[in-house]
Design brief:
With 413 residues, this protein is an all-beta fold.
Length: 413
Amino acid sequence: MSLFHKLLFLSTKAIDTIPDSFSFSNSSGVNPNSVVTSNTITPTGFNAAVSWSISGGTASISGGSYTTSGTISPGQTVTLRVTSSAGFGGSVNATFILGGVSTTWTVTTRNADTYPDNFSFGQQFNINPSTVVTSNTITPTGYEVPIAWSITGGTASVGGGSYTTSGTISPGQTVAVRVTSSGSFNGTASATFTAGGNSGTFEVTTRAPDSTPNAFSFVTVGSNNPSTLVYSNTITLSGFDTGVNWSCSGGTASVGGGSYTTSGIISPGQTVTLRVTSNASYSGSVTATFTAGGVSGTFTANTRAIDTTPNAFSFASKSGVEPSSSHESSPVTITGFDGAISWSTSDGTASINGGAHTTSGTITAGQTVAVRLSASSAFSTSKSATFTAGGVSGTFTVTTRAVDTTPNIKIGR
């Protein structure tokens, strides 16, 4: 064919405005509310500019602005763009029409993340037994929709609500867990909170038992007689949790009202009373030391000072006695003092417990005294002898009779 005929053939070729079939690769697993761009294609099968339009999105021709309609020439490219669904697992469709040929591009959002990131509530130590303990408050992250939760071994408060054992939790809500600690010392209790298949544990460990009582003491007791049993005030030891060994030196102890012994075991809440024998001497002291769980308290009993002052005493007077006659008082028992004390007499003599009459000596509590003196040589006259012991005095007084002025009358022959 000549060149002329070829040119004539080309100039008379028909215009084709219907492209071949085309498509865009669907997109899935995208984030909600995100702008998504399709793959870029080059439509074929047409030889003249043709119109295009899009619904549900926008299109860019050969890198131009994104619009909803226009024309495209052979060899130009097409890229689509949509905003994905606002919800998880949702789809958005954009339909592109070119020269009467259409295709739909589908964009599907991903499923919601229902598995939280790892979380924990930590541990708490040195807790008292049988105590309600609340964990720190946490905010689980990494999930996107409300999810079910449950707890074993305790209760949980979600978003500051009531403590329960199950419910739902939403993103941004807080969680606090509560457990009751073990009823034993050195025991462990735990609660496991599970949400969306992921779990976190709150663990509580009770403290070791306290075997050291609080400081204690007994009240000092004074003015006790020598060599007598003296009892302390009764106290209750506190501040310890378990039975501890005790011992007592210098005396004995009764624990919980039991027998008086020198050692044993004392339990929380039991009482203690100490007992000692007071010093055998006056103005002396005896101290007992009670030790429990390494802590000691003392009880001191003091004896009184010696009493050298007798109780008041007196001697019965005599009257109507003959002048210059010798007289002895009735015996008087001297009491109210300790040990032996000095005595003396003036204007007379004294006999102690029936002994010889002298003018001085010593007397012991409970002994008797009899005082002797000679009556005055004059009529109607008193004379006294004074007995003094330990600074206390008693007087024995003798009074002679009155003079007799009435003669005897003898009647007879």
